[in-house]
Amino acid sequence: MLSKYVSIGDKLDLETIEGMNEELLLNPNEGKKSYRSQVYDIVSEDQIKIAMPMEQGKVILLPVDGEYNVCFYTQTGLYQCLGRIIDRYKSDNVFVLVMELTTDLRKYQRREYYRLNCVLEMKSRAVTENDVNILNEHVRFVDTDITFNNGVMVDISGGGARFISKVRYPQGTNIQFVFSLYVSGSLNEYKLIGKVLLSERIENREDEYEHRIQFVNILNDDRESIIRYIFEEERKNRHRQRTNYL
Fold first, then answer.
1. pLDDT tens-digit series, residues 231-241
2. What is the DSSP letter of 148?
3. Cα separation of 226 and 163, whole Å?
4. Same domain, yes or no, for 70 and 158?
5. Distance between CA 109 and CA 79 in Å, rounded?
6. Within 10 A of 57 (CB to CB), how many other CB atoms are there?
């Protein structure tokens, strides 16, 4: 699929993901960065060589094992995937990065986080604006009457999620939802606030509704943990695909 859309010489952007890269750990105040480069060679459908980016005439030595959002500028539009640098070297006076693409190529919409398809149990409940303010101050609820509705999350990103529930939450509703993810071998529980952007009844499925939500005031640690989960799951998926192919 890669060679169908991407060609040697195509421009690309590498965007750092907070909490993922050595350079950010060493310089936490630097924040998210973007680097411009271009495709130097296509090694295989999941590995490319790119020219090492430059700033003000100086080569930027991006770290091996650094992980990035990659956006390709192709003749047919913008495409996105996640990638990891696995090697770097100099060849014929060109500084080269070897990058493994850890997810499949997808059409890219700027300012959107990469979404992972999933099937995860979750619980949700509608909350008032006052509840949102209290939760944002990290005050623990002590209320034995609070009940949650069961649901299934069907995709997740660093910016929001999509889930199915037998309870309909109208567009604009604030909800609290609870779910768990295995991240780097540990089970993490998340209690997040989201705003419903879209709510629709699922066709041919009685009393089931699909909701798309955007996270509200999510902590950076929680967002970074979710993005780490997405990286790890996409790597597992790629490994399974290779094993099945062989």
1. 888 878 777 76
2. -
3. 16
4. no
5. 8
6. 5
**Is the distance from CB of 211 to CB of 154 less than 8 angstroms?**
no
What is d(CA 126, CA 180) in angstroms, rounded to the nearest whole number? 19
pTM for the whole thing?
Answer: 0.64
Reported as a pLDDT band with limits 50, 70 and 90, residue 227 is confident
Same domain for 49 and 85, yes or no, is yes
Q: Are residues 18 and 125 in the same domain?
A: no
Question: The domain containing residue 168 runs over which residues?
Answer: 116-239
In a domain, 245, yes or no: no
Q: How far apart are CA 15 and CA 34, in angstroms?
A: 4
Provide long-range contacts, Cβ within 8 A and 24+ apart, for 20-29: 20/66, 20/67, 20/224, 20/227, 20/228, 20/231, 21/63, 21/66, 21/67, 21/68, 22/63, 22/65, 22/66, 23/62, 23/63, 23/66
CATH number at residue 60: 2.30.110.10
